[in-house]
Amino acid sequence: MSTARVRPVGGLAAAAVAAAFAILLTGSPAAPATAEADRDVQIRKLDAVRISGLSDFIFPVSMETPAPLTDQVCVFSTASGRYQITATSANASGRDFRLAGDGGIIVYHVAWRGTGGYEELDSGRASDTMGGGSRTSPSCGGGTNASIRVSLDPATYAAALPGIYADTLTITVAPD
Amino acid sequence: MANGKTKLAVIAGVALASSLVAAAFAATQGTPGATSTGSADVRAEKESAVSITGLNDIVFAASATTPAPLADPVCVFSNPGSYTVNVSSANAAGGTYRLSSGSGFINYSVSWFNAGSGGATVALTSGTASPSITGADQTSPTCGGGDTARIQVTIDPATYISAPAATYTDTLTIIVSPT
């Protein structure tokens, strides 16, 4: 946009007025005197979540069924700290979490605790609503606010041949 | 490995073979977003284990002539299902099993059967592990109250008949290892 503006210079007689005018010019004289435009700025912020602080679950070598292992993690959720968990076993059979090895399979169980007690999970199925996630800090301020418990099924452990059994547990958090 | 001893009598024990799972940290962390996904490895290592139980002393009746062989059923648990057995004599001469009176010896032989009754037999040499033997109970350290093997002792007629009258004894040490 450019603006041309004409104005009188000092208190001169009328005959001399025309010559005494100074022309102050900026921009193109063809442009309109003023122009305005409005642009709306809008953003729809969706809820965001994050899970972090996960560690591997390595059971001790044992002939007998080892004790359960737990891991403390951080869940961030802008949905007032609420979220759902879906845990999936790479070797799942139906809803069962399974470790696979040369000597067969070992079933295991996964439970999640946000607030309150542990809730048993099914592989590939979203949990009930969990609470207690951090509302403001994606890293939970360096702390943790949820717990995962992994326990091995005694019957399938007893029946398994000696050897190494492994699985990859994938955990997805969604706002709720 | 499990071992036991017998004075033509036996004591049983359990030992465990193990190795450690290498901890390779592969957990991944989620990133902020509409959903967030992380992962963790879950690993377990089932340990190999064996035990031998149900051993008894092997006591022959007094006799002027060579007594018939005696057998003792035992329970061998091995979660891989197979095992080796190494039976050694306290009075061995080389690989020969011997009873001793303190001044004289009577030779004997030891055989191992892979069942409480019947089964395949393996002739043993004192201090030498057997070939792999199948038939162990894979799930129950007590074999469910039954037997999965038996040890048989046979007195050597030649050394028995020529031995002076006396009491002859030996201690057998039995080591079972998973295979």
> Might you state the CATH topology name of chain B?
Immunoglobulin-like
Helix content of chain A: under 10%
Helix amount of chain B, in percent? Answer: under 10%
Query: What is Rg of chain B?
Result: 23 Å
Tell me the structural class of chain B.
mainly beta
Shape verdict of chain B: elongated
Low-confidence residue ranges of chain A: 1-25
Distance between the termini of chain A: 49 Å
Q: Would you tell me the overall average pLDDT of chain A? A: 86
Strand content of chain A: 35-45%
Order of SSEs of chain B: EEEEEEEEEEEEHE
Rg estimate of chain A, integer Å: 34 Å
The CATH topology of chain A is Immunoglobulin-like
What does this structure look like?
The complex is a heterodimer of chains A (176) and B (179). Chain A has helices at 17-20, 154-159; strands at 3-7, 22-26, 49-52, 57-58, 69-77, 83-89, 97-101, 104-113, 119-121, 146-152, 163-175. By secondary structure, chain A is mainly beta. Chain A has one domain: CFA/I fimbrial subunit E, pilin domain (Immunoglobulin-like, Sandwich), CATH 2.60.40. The two termini of chain A are 49 Å apart. The model of chain A is unreliable at 1-25 (pLDDT under 50). Chain B is mainly beta. Chain B has a single domain, classed as Immunoglobulin-like, CATH 2.60.40. In chain B, 3% of the residues lie in helices and 42% in strands. Chain B has one helix spanning 157-162; strands spanning 2-6, 11-12, 14-16, 36-46, 49-53, 70-78, 82-89, 97-100, 105-113, 121-123, 133-134, 149-155, 172-178. At the A-B interface, strand 3, strand 4, strand 5, strand 7 and strand 10 of A face strand 4 of B. Strand 4 of chain A pairs parallel with strand 4 of chain B.
Name a few traits of the molecule.
heterodimer; A: 176 residues; mainly beta; Immunoglobulin-like; two-stranded antiparallel sheet; 2 helices; 11 strands; elongated; B: 179 residues; 7-stranded antiparallel sheet; 5-stranded antiparallel sheet; 3% helix
